[in-house]
Structure formats: structure tokens, C-alpha cells
């Protein structure tokens, strides 16, 4: 300002010669103006910096929220997939699903199995030695978990666990898309009986594998539990019911008969009706005729006990790994 002071004084004198009144010398007014401009720039820069910091923190918070939402969605998907079959879970997790929409699916060729532990009721006690029954439930959980682990085997991928009712295990075959039946990408051309009922043979293998698993558990725990299993095949209606704790289940005459085959069966045996026996014997399964059994609501039905399998795999020529219960033919 000292360097420009003569110029401002000369400017003020010329303005005075022309009759203009100068209240504040130009050098002071210009100094104040420059100071105000610098102060404005400083305030503006600080404001911009504050906005930038706020925007950065907001972006970080949004990123963290997105991560939490993604993690929560993964947990929800895993929970739904654990509660429902995979293809049903995809239906409910889809973006086009309406809340009031009811999921249902009809199947014409399904295998149903009930497997119970009749002597578990005698094993269960609520005495102090069993911690009020908790140890008995823990042991039952280990048995059911071992049965569930069998479903992870590739051979049993077409089998779906439906539910457990007390110590009874319920499963079905043919309700998954990769079963190649009952819709879900089923082949349009006619298929042989062997192709159509391969999932039923897998369900029978699963029942036999459950018996082997329980036998190993008995050996390790010095117990003598035995399975009583009933199987049937036919048409069912599947669906998910309930607004809270939705449950996937199947209904129909096929389910009722399978349940009766279990309840009227004999411990240590797998009981089937004649129609199921006729199909499974084509896959190399061995049966023992039991005879006529009275079934409530059905009258007397001819039943058979499934005892094992003579050949590993099916008649499709697949190189399946023999299960412990399968007996190889001598060449």
C-alpha cells in the first residue's frame, strides 16, 4: 500500500478538483475492500473444506452401511436356504415375488420317506443324571445331524429333508430341479421308467445309508437304537405355509401311506407297498415279502421289507460308489 500511496493521493486530488467530495481516502477504502475480499476467500475455502470433509465422512458411512446390508443379506439368504429347499429359497428371495403370493407346486412322481427311532422314547429321561433330558436331546441332535450330513453327498443331491417330528425324520426325492422330473427343466421327450424313478432308488439308498450311520453311532456310544422306515411313491402337493416361521411341507395320499408304512413297520426294517417294490426291484434292491398289513383308511395292503441292494448304482450304467450296505455280485 505504501508503494501505491502516491497514486491514490493523486486520484483523490483530481476528484477534489472536479468538485467530488472524498469522505474516506481511497487508500483506506481500497485497503478495507481488499481485506474484506481476502476474508471472504478465507471463509469460502474453509467452508469448502468443511463440506469436503463432511462428504467424505458421509461416503464412508454409506459404504459401511452398504457392507452391513450386504452381510445381513448374505446371512438372510443362508438362513432362508437352510430353512427351505434351494429352488424354493430362490423363489422367495427373487425381486418379483409379492408378499401375498402363495408358493405351491404339484408333483406327479415323488418319493417320500419317514424314518423314526421308536426306542428313543425309552431312552429319553428327565433325571438329573441326564441334566433334565438335555443330554438325551443332545444325543438325538447328533443322530439327526449325521443324517443331515448324508444329504451333502453327491449321490443324494436329489433328496430334500422336509422336517423332523420328534425323533421321526421325513425326506422326499424328486422335488429338486436337478431331479429332472415334475417340471423344473424336465425333459420333453419320453423317458424310461429307470430314468423317471432314479430319484426313488437314491431315496432307498439314503434310507439304507441312514441305517448304516445309526449302526456306527450305536457302536461308538454303546446304544441299540433301531430305525423303523416307511417309503412310498406317487403324487404330492408341495408348498410353503405360514407368515411367521414359514415351513415347507408336502401333502397328499402318498405322504399318508408313507407315514402308515413307518407306523405299521418293524424296527430295523424298511417297509414299502407293492407298487414301490415293483419299481425298486428293477434297480437291484432285494425284498422280503411281509404280507398284507391293515392300513387305516386304506384297508389291507401288500407290503415288503427292503433288505439291501445287490448292485452298486442303477441300471443306467453309472459308475456309482457302492455304499456299505450294498453287496457286489461275484463275476
UniProtKB/TrEMBL annotation:
Organism: bird metagenome
Names of required cofactors: Mg(2+)
Enzyme Commission code(s) on record: 4.6.1.1
Pfam hit, one: Guanylate_cyc
Gene Ontology MF term list: adenylate cyclase activity; ATP binding; metal ion binding
Keyword Cytoplasm applies: no
Keywords: ATP-binding, cAMP biosynthesis, Lyase, Magnesium, Membrane, Metal-binding, Nucleotide-binding, Transmembrane, Transmembrane helix
Membrane topology recorded in Swiss-Prot or TrEMBL: Multi-pass membrane protein
Protein localization: Membrane
Database matches in InterPro entries: A/G_cyclase, A/G_cyclase_CS, Nucleotide_cyclase
Name of the protein in its database record: adenylate cyclase
Catalysis performed (reactions): ATP = 3',5'-cyclic AMP + diphosphate
GO cellular component: plasma membrane
UniProt-listed GO biological process terms: adenylate cyclase-activating G protein-coupled receptor signaling pathway; cAMP biosynthetic process; intracellular signal transduction
Residue span, Guanylate cyclase domain: 111-262
Transmembrane segment boundaries: 28-45
Amino acid at each position: 500500500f505504501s508503494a501505491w500511496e502516491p497514486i491514490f493521493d493523486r486520484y483523490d486530488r483530481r476528484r477534489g478538483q472536479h468538485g467530488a467530495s472524498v469522505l474516506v481516502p481511497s487508500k483506506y477504502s481500497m485497503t478495507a475492500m481488499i481485506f474484506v475480499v481476502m476474508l471472504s476467500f478465507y471463509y469460502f475455502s474453509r467452508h469448502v473444506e468443511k463440506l469436503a470433509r463432511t462428504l467424505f465422512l458421509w461416503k464412508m458411512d454409506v459404504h459401511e452401511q452398504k457392507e452391513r446390508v450386504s452381510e445381513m443379506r448374505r446371512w438372510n439368504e443362508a438362513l432362508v436356504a437352510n430353512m427351505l429347499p434351494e429352488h424354493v429359497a430362490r423363489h422367495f428371495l427373487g425381486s418379483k415375488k409379492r408378499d401375498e403370493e402363495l408358493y405351491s407346486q404339484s408333483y406327479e412322481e415323488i418319493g417320500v420317506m419317514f424314518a423314526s427311532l421308536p426306542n428313543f422314547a425309552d431312552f429319553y429321561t428327565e433325571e438329573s443324571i441326564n441334566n433334565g433330558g438335555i443330554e438325551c436331546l443332545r444325543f438325538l441332535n447328533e443322530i439327526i445331524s449325521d443324517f443331515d450330513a448324508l444329504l451333502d453327498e453327491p449321490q443324494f443331491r436329489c433328496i430334500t429333508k422336509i422336517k423332523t417330528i420328534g425323533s421321526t425324520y421325513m425326506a422326499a426325492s424328486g422335488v429338486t430341479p436337478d431331479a429332472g422330473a415334475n417340471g423344473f427343466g424336465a425333459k420333453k421327450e419320453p423317458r424310461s421308467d429307470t430314468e423317471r424313478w432314479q430319484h426313488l432308488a437314491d431315496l432307498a439308498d439314503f434310507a439304507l445309508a441312514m441305517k448304516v450311520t445309526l449302526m456306527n453311532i450305536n457302536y461308538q456310544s454303546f446304544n441299540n437304537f433301531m430305525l423303523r422306515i416307511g417309503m412310498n411313491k406317487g403324487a404330492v402337493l408341495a408348498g410353503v405355509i405360514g407368515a411367521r416361521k414359514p415351513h415347507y411341507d408336502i401333502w397328499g395320499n402318498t405322504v399318508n401311506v408313507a407315514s402308515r408304512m413307518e407306523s405299521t413297520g418293524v424296527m430295523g426294517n424298511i417297509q414299502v407297498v407293492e407298487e414301490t417294490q415293483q419299481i425298486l426291484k428293477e434297480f437291484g434292491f432285494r425284498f422280503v415279502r411281509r404280507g398284507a398289513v391293515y392300513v387305516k383308511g386304506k384297508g389291507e395292503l401288500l407290503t415288503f421289507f427292503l433288505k439291501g441292494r445287490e448292485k452298486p448304482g442303477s441300471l443306467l450304467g453309472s459308475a456309482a460308489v457302492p455304499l456299505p450296505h450294498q453287496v457286489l455280485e461275484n463275476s
